[in-house]
Amino acid sequence: MSGLFSLQDHVALITGASRGLGLAMATAMAEAGALVVLNGRDAATLTAAAEGLRARGLKAGIAAFDVSDFDACAREVAAIAARHGRLDAVVLNAGINHRKPLLEWETEDFLRVLNINLTGCFVLAREAARAMIPRGSGRIIFTGSIMGIVARPTVHAYAAAKAGLGGMAKTLAVELAPKGLTVNVICPGFFDTEMNTALTQNPEFDAWVKQRCPMGRWAQPEELGGAAVFLASRAGSYMNGHMLVVDGGLTINM
Ligand code: GCO
Considering the entire predicted model, what is its pTM? Predict the structure, then answer.
């Protein structure tokens, strides 16, 4: 692929990329020409995912580490940049959810979700910036959520982390733009992923999504790929501090 949306010769790290939205964004970026480094906790799952991409003639490597192990984050980002001599984009996507009525929440669970969904993203963004600034270019992309914009019950830590990413992306965007970096957030709506199995298989919730979303359906993971390619490529060069909502129109529907 050449032109506006090409990622030819680019190196991109995508966290939480062994399945779901992360793998879908990594696949789209690899199809646009990038060498994608897939991150997840399980090396075997990651290897299988990377082999799947390589079998299609795409360029893929792996970096198995836990994004809430902050020392590992710093070490691995530096290693990727050193190994490839460049780091063009990071898609900080790894995340978990925990759904409970407020009074059943343990504080530890709140902190665990924040560590993975927010603090890990901060550390990885900082370490990516460390590698990108000397080259005067780089794209930092967070996976936020419409849950950082609108609300539903039970997902308190998830919503706090996703709203937090929005705020943090803006401060990073204004601080790093003079150094040639851009920072943006992709905010998915309801996607049919493994993480959402409890929701897709709940008939009431499924009906609610289909009624609430003007497109009348859940999104497929592949439908997030274009947003990542856009923000990582020359096509997105003037996008900065933006929250790119990909929700089929759910949040603008009265
Ligand atoms: C939830 C889901 C989330 C949503 C997301 C929409 O419980 O709300 O687990 O993963 O899909 O908030 O982006």
Answer: 0.97
